[in-house]
Structures are given as C-alpha cells and as structure tokens.
Amino acid sequence: MIRKTLLLSLLCMAAAPLSAQDAAPAAESATPADAVLLAPVRVIGITPADTGGVPLDRYPANAQAATALDIQNAQAQSISDFLSRKIGGVFVSDAQNNPYQPDLFYRGYSISPLLGLPQGLALYVDGVRVNETFGDVVNWDLIPDAAINSLQLVPGSNPVFGQNTLAGALTLRTKSGFDLDGTRIELGGGSFSRFGTSVEHGWSQGKYAVYVAGEYDREDGWRDFSPSRIGRLFTKGSYLDDKTSVDLSLSLADNRLTGNGAAPVALLEREGRGRIFTYPDLTEPRLGAINLQASHAFSQHISWSGGVAFRRNYSKSLNGDGTEYEACEDPANVDAGGNPFLCQEEEDEEEVLTTPDGTPIVASEANDSATVNTSSTDQYAYSLRTQLVLTGAKPRDRIIVGGTAEFGRVSFASQTEAGALREDRGAEGSGEQVLDSFVRLRTRKYVYSGFVVGNWSPLEPLDITAAASLNHTQVVLRDRGVDDDLDGNHRFTRLNPSIGATWKFTSRLTGFANYAESARAPTPVELTCADPLDPCRLPNGFVSDPPLDQVVTRTIEAGIRWNSPRYSGALAFFNSDNKNDILFITDGELTSTGYFDNVGKTRRRGIEFGSNYRITKALSVGLQYTYLDAQFLEGFLVNSPNHPVRDPLDDEEASEGSRQVNAGNRIPLVPRHLGKATIEYRVPTFGIGFEANGRSNSNYRGDESNTDPELIPGFVIFGLYGDYKPLPWLTVFGRVSNLFGRDFATFGVYGEAEETLGEDYEGEYRFIGPGAPRAFFGGLRVRF
Q1: Is 338 exposed, middle or buried, given 0-12, 13-18 or 19+ CB atoms closer than 10 A?
Q2: Which residues lie below 8 Å from residue 506, measured CB to CB, with a gap of 6+?
Q3: Nearest-5° Cα angle at 157, 749 to 79
Q4: Which of 112, 148, 345, 446 is deepest in the core (most CB within 10 A)?
Q5: Nearby residues of 706 by Cβ (< 8 Å), 6 or more positions away
Q6: pTM listed for this prediction
Q7: Residue 8 pLDDT greater than 50, yes or no
Q8: First to last CA, the chain
C-alpha cells in the first residue's frame, strides 16, 4: 500500500499543471557566487526544538552546519553522503557496502543502521528523535533527503539532546511551503544502472503553506547480487503568523536494500572486488511517521514550543550465510537408519539440533553448508515534547525549561533455517527451522527527560551556557518464545550537567570551552545479547544474558573560532572519557556472531581543524583535518576465535583464540588521521568542485588487542562535481566519485573463509568492506 501511494504521488506531482514562478525557491535564491561549501552559520539551536538558537560565535563548542544549497552544490547522493564528504570529523566504515546503509562515525562514535555498533549520536528530524527503539540505530534510507532544509552537528556530550549524545547530536530541519514556491523536478542516472528522480512542490498564500516531496531511487549495485530501491514521500502543512506557527508532517517510505557486506581479502584479490562472500542479505523497511509541532510567543519575553509524534517502522530481513552446523560425529547421534543428525559443537561437545517441535534434524547435503536467517521487527514509537523559553531584558539572557516523554513498543521475531550453498554461494533453505534460533520477543521502552538550559551574558564579550538534564529509562523484555529466558526489567536514571562559555576577543575571533556529561542506556538488543559464553547472531539469535550498565561520557572541549569576509574556520581540542563503554565483541566462525559487553573505560580525544578561504569572489578552498586517538583505558580478556595471529606459547590463546586487551590499545575501525580538502569555483550559472578525502590505517574489528600486524590500509580518494545553468529554470549537474579508481576499504572484520570457500582459503581470516570503484551520476533539475 505504501509503495502504491509513493508511486501515485510522484506521478500526480509530475503531471500536475505547472506555471512559471517569478520567485525562485528559497534554497536557490542565494547568489551562488556568495556561497561557500559550509556557509557561516548565524545561529545554533541549543535544544532539539530550539528555533531561536544562539549566534555561532556565542556557542561554546565546535558546531558545524549546512543548508539545502550546500547539499545541492555538492551533488550529494544523500544526507549521509554529504556528512561523510563535507563535515569535519565524520567518516564512513561501510560494513554493508550499500550507499543507503552507511555506518557513519563522528569523533570515533558511530551513528549507523547496523545492529552490533553501539550508537553514540542522536539524530533529530524536526525535533523528533529518530534513533530506533530496538537498537538506537539510525536508518539513513528513511530520511527524506529532498525535503531537508538545513542540518547542524552539535558536538560533545550535550545532556539536553538526551540519549546517545556521547559524541553529539545531529539535527535536521525539513522544508515547508514557505521555503519553496513552485515545483522542482530532478531526474538522473549513472553507473551501476542507477536511476533517481525527485519531485518537490511548495505553495503558500498568506499564513498557510503546503509542501510535498517524493523520491524514487534504484541501482543494481557495483557488487554481485546487490540491487536496492528507495521510495519516499514527505508532506507538510504549515500555518505561520507573527506569534504562532504550526506544522503537521507525514513521512512514508517503502525500501528494499541489499547489503552483502564484507568478503575475504583473498577472495577479492583472486576473483575481483565485486565478488561477495554469501548472499542474500536483504532488508525491507517500511515507515509511516506523523509529527505535529507548534510554537507560540506570548510576549517578547515568554514563548513556548512543543509537539507530539508517532512513528512506525516495520522491517523484514533475509540473510544467507555460512554455517557452524555439521553432521554429528558421535555414533550415538544417528536416526533409526543410521543417518547422522545435524549438530552444533558446544565446548568440545556436540549438540543435536532440533526443530521447534522437538524433532531432531537429520544431516544432508540440503542443510549442512548454509543458514538462512529471517527476522521481522515491528517498532512503534510515540513521543511528546515541550519547552518554555524565558528571555531577559537582554536577548542573550535566556532560560529554557523543557521535557520529553518517549514510549517505544517492539515485536521481534527471528528464526534460522538450515540450508545449503549453491555454486554461486547463494543460500537456499531446507525448510527445517532450528529450535535454538527461534526467538519471539516483545519489548517496551520508556524514556523520560526533563532539562533546563540557561544563557547568561554578564559582560559584553562573555557568554555562559549551563544546562542539566534528568533522564530515566526503563526497558521491559518479555519472551514469547519456547521459554522465558529473555524476560527482564531494567531501569537506568542519571542527572547529566554541562557548562560552557565563549569570549569574543575581537569581532572576528572567539574562544570557547565546555564541559558536559551524557549517558546511554543499554538497548533491548544489547540486553538480550550480552553473554560471552553464549554469543548470538545479529540480528537473529538472542539469549538470556547478564545485565549491562549504562554508558556515561564526560567531554571537555576548548578552541577558537574565526570569521571574516574571506576567512572562516575553527580549531578545537576535545577529550571524551567513557565509563562502562559497550562494544560488540565478535566471537564465532561467522562475522555477525558475538556479544555486547561493558569493557570498562575508553577514551576518544583529538584535535579538529577546519577552515575556508575565499581567494576571489568565485574561487574558494576548504581544508579539514582531525587527529583522533581512540583507545581502551582498561584491560580485559576478549574472545576472538578467528584472529589470524596466534601465540603458540600461550595455551589458552592458541586453543580458544582469546586475547588480552591492554590499556592503551586502539579501538578498532577508528583511524588516527582524517583529512578533507576542496577547491571550488562558482559563479551564478556555473560551478565546479574538486575534492579529496583521506584517512590513515585502522585495526580490524576483532583485533581489540592490536596484535595483528596487518591493518586496514589508509587511503586518499578524489572526486569531481559540478553544475551548469544554461537557462534560469534548467540546471545540468554531475559528479564523479573515486575519480582515479583507487582500490580501498573502509571496514574490516575477522571471519572463517575456509568453511564456505574450501581448502584453498585455509588460514584466510581477514574480511574487508571494499570501497566502490569510479562511478558517475548526472542529470537535470527543472524548476517551475
């Protein structure tokens, strides 16, 4: 039904009678020659729903922001693509190898759609937190990219932005009919049979406005068996007068995503980088979301804003993988005809696998070489938010008091079917489901938060910002499977403070400093997958586990910011210490098998530098550099059975694959050095940009002990993008990514290749997520 609605809406919007408009869309009304890649930001919101904000030069942290025009000029495929290319400190570690499912990291913390990565950032769209209830993951494919009007990245453990703000919060604002007057159509295509189109229409009259955006995008993917499709619809109705604003929006999505993930390094070297390990790996999310937000100014000194929202995300997944199942060796584990049962080895003993009704599974060629894992996740999220803003005699003196209440309800079902691998390594089920994998779980999650923020300017050059937030989270687990092992009731409460200040040395130079604390409660996924003695397979197999502690982050940040007609930028130092940090520890023959664990204290600290210089009115250059030191501060023993380096003198390490992690070891997947550079020439009818994006090497996931001498290599890749406007209503655009076709990888993990690929791959334990080759995408934008 959602799919039909999306397609019908796109057709209706494209076919509607169109008339030329004298007024250009707001995003295009700015003079291109006066725009820079990251235009100077005038205000930064200090709460998720703050529409007033504070001037950037009065904000005590290295915040970054961009507008719809910045995103358009970069010819970004998506919001996540723009963040990874243009925002300092952000990088990709692409486990799924799907452009619609990237794993983004910021300051060493992840914001990702992948279960198994502890989420360290919060994402808000129009004031609504969209981290999913089940695992706090962020599904980038559900964000209406065409409708985004602005974004801001607020760094640090800001307590006002609630759960997951260990590294910061990303807030997105959507367009309304007041921002776009008329119709805009984009049509394009390119490499890997990619085709994409979007249609936007905005209308306003007096105090009322309507905005509609529809998007459709598809591609075959550059790797084998990797097609994906995106369909999204976003609508908003608005009311605006001198004192009151009301917005009601509806967001729908119906997507089909293939992410076949990491593959053995040796396989890619021998057969080509487009080859995959096993398939399919399919995710089909469907979204329906409603958001009502309003604000009212009672007087010059008192205003209110708030809203209610509902969000339902129903997602199905299908994953074909290798197997740990094999025919039983014990002569007693056979049927009446002497045929061996199918077994799984458990601590040097074999366990006979049975179906959910208790029938032993007989081993055969149809069920001993693969598994087919299926799951469904039905998530409902309800939220209420409110805040009151009190402004003093000086506009810079403000107090904001507010609160949020979130309720999430999840029904999760998963099962594993024993199967066989075809010659092309596609998994085919036998129809025999395995009892141990049969999970039926219901979850309820309650999150309550109250906060207060104060801005005070005792002296003209000085601004002080202080805040505190009291958060309470309750997670209720109810097992609806064959037993009640997963039942649980967990509560987490914490008061998180922050204080910061800015000092304007001159009109163009500002210093800032900030201290903040925030916390992240364990998610339902983490609470049901935390036993090192019984690892689970994400996102399918959950087991009864010990409880986890919530993660607490304390961040100190200081720096300077400068801004002039030709120069703008910032230099900042940050230090974030985590207590009870939660990581996913890979443990098993399969790359998705493992468990979550509190690993004690960790630290992520570094230096950020970003600067833009306008050489002439049309020519500008930008440079961003991040030094990032992410390390464990406490030692612990970790299981890593597929670690390629074994110590024969250590009996425990040689037999079990355990590794000792020491204080000072680097956190996997996080490079020490990140760099981005851009040179862009732009006049009203033409723009072209050349960019470079690079990073240093990093450790494989599974190498928490840093004992593998082989690292995921660093790289630098280049890109070219531009647009040309031959007519006021017509724009031709294009982009080439990985311009020189460099081979690179952004993700690495350990797994066992031999079980699936045969003896030729004995001892091949390193898997990588290869980066995409050279690709082109181009098209037309038409405005009416």
Answers
A1: exposed
A2: none
A3: 60
A4: 112
A5: 665, 666, 699
A6: 0.91
A7: no
A8: 30
Number of other CB atoms surrounding residue 458 within 10 Å: 8
Is the CB of residue 170 less than 8 Å from the CB of residue 12? no
DSSP per residue, 27-53: HHHS-GGG--TTPPPSEE-SSTT-SS-
Are the CB atoms for 78 and 100 separated by under 8 Å? yes
How far apart (Å, rounded) are the C-alpha atoms in residues 700 and 112? 18
- C-alpha distances out from residue 238 to 9, 179, 206, 295, 385, Å: 19, 11, 11, 12, 19
Concatenated DSSP letters of 406-460: EEEEEEEEEEEEEEEE-TT-BEEEEEEE-GGG-EEEEEEEEEEEEEEEEEEEEET
Q: If you search the block for the tokens 């290599």, which residue do you land on?
A: 713
The two tokens of residue 111 are 């914001």
Let me know: does 115 contact 22? Beta carbons within 8 Å.
no
Q: Which two tokens stand for residue 186?
A: 């984009």
SS3 19: coil
Give the pLDDT confidence of 483-522 residue by residue, as tens digits: 666 788 889 999 999 999 999 999 999 999 999 999 998 8
Radius of gyration of the chain (CA): 26
The answer to whether 713 and 745 have CB atoms below 8 angstroms apart is: yes
pLDDT of residue 142: 97
Top pLDDT among 86 and 40 is at 86
- Tell me the mean pLDDT in the region 304-312: 97
Structure tokens at 461: 């050059």
Is there a cis peptide before residue 280, judged by omega within 30 degrees of 0? yes
Please state the φ and ψ torsions of residue 404, each to the nearest 5 degrees. Answer: -135, 150
How far, in Å, CA of 468 to CA of 464, rounded? Answer: 14
Confidence label for 524 from pLDDT (cuts 50, 70 and 90): confident
Q: 247 by DSSP, 3-state: which?
A: strand
Count the alpha carbons within 13 Å of 327 in the hemisphere toward its beta carbon: 12
Phi and psi at residue 525, in whole multiples of 5°?
-60, -45
Residue type, 115: L
The 10 Å Cβ neighbour count of residue 93 is 25
**One-letter amino acid identity for 543?**
V
Q: What is the DSSP string of 637-658?
A: EEE-TT-S---TT-HHHHHH-E
DSSP 613-637: EESSSSEEEEEEEEEEEEEESS-EE
CA angle 636, 639, 641 (to 5 degrees): 150
The answer to whether 147 and 198 have CB atoms below 8 angstroms apart is no
Each residue of 537-586: pLDDT tens digit?
Answer: 544 334 334 468 899 999 999 999 999 889 999 999 999 999 998 877 66
Among 428-432, 652-656, 769-773, where is mean pLDDT lowest? 652-656
Q: State the Cα–Cα distance between residues 576 and 555, nearest whole angstrom.
A: 4
Q: Decide if 610 contacts 624 (C-beta within 8 A).
A: yes
Name the more confident of 531 and 761.
761
- Check residue 43 and give its pLDDT: 84
Q: Which residues contact 51 (CB under 8 A, 6 or more apart)?
A: 45, 295, 305
The region that residue 619 occupies, defined by phi over 0 for left and psi between -120 and 50 for alpha, beta otherwise, is: beta
Mean pLDDT of the residues in the chain: 89
